[in-house]
Amino acid sequence: MSQESIDLLPFSQPFHPTLAASRETREDLARLLLPELARPIISLVYNPWLATRRDDRQDYRAQALDHGFDDEHSIAAWYLSTEPIPEPTTEGLSMVTPQRIVFQTRAADQGWATFGGDGTFENSHTWFEASILRSVGQGCQQNESNAPKDALRDRSWWDIADAREDLRAQGWEFVEGENGRLSWRVCNNLTASSEFRNYTVEWRRNIVAAAEDERAIGNGEGFLQLLGPGCIVVLWARAEQRFWVNKVEGATIEIEYEFL
Fold first, then answer.
1. Pairing of strands 126-135, 184-188
2. For 118, which DSSP code?
3. Is the pLDDT of residue 79 over 70?
4. Of 8, 4, 48, 11, the residue nearest 202 (C-alpha)
5. Are 113 and 191 in contact (CB under 8 A)?
6. Parallel, antiparallel, or unpaired: how do β-strands 63-64 and 58-61 relate?
7. Average model confidence (pLDDT) for the chain?
8. What per-residue confidence (pLDDT) applies to 90?
């Protein structure tokens, strides 16, 4: 990746402590202070993070169904995925709990709309969604080297649910939310805006994110409660309706987690 790309969409956090660095710092604090004080201090200022990014221009155009009505257009494209959340059994930990996730996208649509909404989130038909994947039959337990990102990166389907069979072929399945939901809306692009813009969405555990405009971002309700050790997060680029295009220049995912 180029420095120019990073400058256009920098990570939301200035640094991302590794699990090893965070554990070492907590152990040092435990020796200097009371051990029971070390954990809350680290939780406030030095939790470990998983961070991933992609800086790669891709245009995702809504496609017609292979069968059915000609006016039904959609696309769900795998754009970015994380490494697995560390597992207690492999890292010598007793618990790993994701506390916060930050999504950033740099994107635009095709720059025009037939039915208005220009420059707002009304009539927006390009957006991003996030899913949680786990290893088939093993809960969220999977080896990092077996993550499906290389096999499925840049694959696209008409809808997210249509990816289920291909995911299972790679040994992965969706972690389903309430009422069988497979994905959570992250954010929409401004309508009829060809200028690339940065969008940031932050979700915290047990907190429903508030939004000034609910058409702009999703609240992430229940997402972090389902994100467990060994799971990965996938960011999907979406578009629907004829002629709509989700133009993506980059994206980042950052996950903060606590450990014992």
1. antiparallel
2. T
3. yes
4. 11
5. yes
6. unpaired
7. 91
8. 64
Please name the amino acid found at residue 51: A
In angstroms, the CA 121 to CA 117 distance is 7
* Interatomic CA distance for residues 69 and 48, integer angstroms: 48
Assigned token pair, 190? 């401004």
Structure tokens at 37: 């004080």
Cβ atoms of 209 and 203 closer than 8 Å? yes
- The domain limits of the chain are 51-259
**Taking 90 as the threshold, does the pLDDT of residue 166 lie above it?**
yes
pLDDT, tens digit (0-9, with 9 covering 90-100), for 179-224 = 999 999 999 999 999 999 999 999 999 998 888 899 999 999 999 9
What's the CA gap between 189 and 127, in Å, rounded? 6
Share of the chain above pLDDT 70, in %: 91
**SS3 of residue 72 by DSSP:** coil
Who's near 192: CB < 8 A, 6+ residues apart? 109, 110, 111, 112, 113, 117, 118, 119
Burial (CB < 10 A; 0-12, 13-18, 19+), residue 14, is: exposed
Query: DSSP secondary structure string, 16-51?
Result: ---HHHHHHHHHHHHHHS-HHHHHHHHHHH---EEE
User: How many residues in the chain?
Assistant: 260
201 has which bridge partners?
A: 103
User: How far is residue 214's CA from residue 116's CA, in Å, rounded to a whole number?
Assistant: 18
